[in-house]
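User:
Hi there, any thoughts?
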Amino acid sequence: MKAQSMLLSALAAAPAALAHTVWTDFYVDGMPQGDGVAMRMNLDAAKASSPIASLDSDDMACNVGGTKGVSRVQPVKDGALLTFEIRAWPNDATKERLDDGHRGPCAVYLKKVDRATTDKAAGDGWFKIFDHGYNSETKRWCTDEIIDNDGLLSVHLPKGLEPGDYLARPELLALHNALNDDPQMYTGCAQIFLEGNGNLVPESTVSIPGYMKYGTPSTNFDIYNTPNSEYVLPGPPVAKLKPRGSQSASASTTQPDGQKPAGCIMENANWCGKEVPDYTDEKGCWASAEQCWTQMETCYTTSPPTGSAGCELWGEKCEGISDACKAKKFNGPPNKGKVLTPAKKQINPGSLMPTVGGGVATNAEASKTQMPAKTTADVSETQMPAKSTLTAELEESAKPTSVAPKPTVSDAYEAPISTITVAPSSANAPAPTEASCPKGWKCFVETHVEVVTETVYVTATMADGYRKRATVHQRRHLPRA
């Protein structure tokens, strides 16, 4: 575990990246779908928040491993508000979302597919529904807005789209090291089923990978010494839609698959726990306990980088059944059928960003604040974005709230001497990007190491005739064979 800081002795801040990020989850009209639910992301926890290694890779579509779908597909209404969330630590939304040195544009793409659970994502069929680059009026990048909105990016689905399965793909392009041929792309995909009876389709589509290349003005732009208002957004413009003459084969009004399984009483990302069988004797009690523990092991082994909080709650249920078996209470299971998934409460996603490129707004209507119907009184303290209460003020003043220094002479990024620090990470923390020092600058890297001791307890054979079999995550209680 590391906390790394860079001290810069220069008149401009060095383009050093200290923290990466990952698209972890999404909200529909302000309602959370759950961490990792219906989301394609890099499943390697140690590398989940790393940028895509190559702009020419199939990973550009939905991240590393993103050519393989997940089991869930979330239904959304025509014209719904989708809100995507980034985190530097995938399993901890309380920590930094993205180092504010990562400056650059963002966009959202859609792809109509026959089956969201099986489509390989890479290839043609993608069309853009939103983009935002550098706003010359506020002198802020899309990344600045996302950071100040607690890692949230919101966009309305175009109304009247054909119904059916789609992949919804947010992207963020960080340009802090673009001059070193290192534009850093962060992306992922949500699997959604669009409900409705529309017939609109894009006039044209692009291929991902293929729409973004190295060595172009969009990917090797110098944000430090070039007026940022000159930046040209990558990829196509926001798609124009047209009515389809006849409905496509994939324009289904009934969701084909990906629904939450029936009888699901506990969720963890795309895993669902189901109630164990009833029992009235000792043998049945331990059989149900065994089934419960087996489900828990599956939960842990399939957990994405967003964590295993649901598995821990499920483990408490299994522990309760095992304890009942030990106490010879053979009438169960306890709390039969009780839904254990914590209640999901609506959030305030903040204001929507206008479509902006090169400092010129092309969608003024999108800049209006659009909130979900529920009030903040219905929002839990832990789920409410900390900065969302400031959105009205931010929209009026357009003044940055980040503590990072902002340019005062021109819209090229310049800052006085500063220290950028990243807090110590959790167990699955992303590795920091190696800091780079521009020619002629003096850079100092200071690394702090925090030692954490983890103790694992294993209980040996018990005297009462039962044995505890330790697993990686919980203890299991089984009768002696």
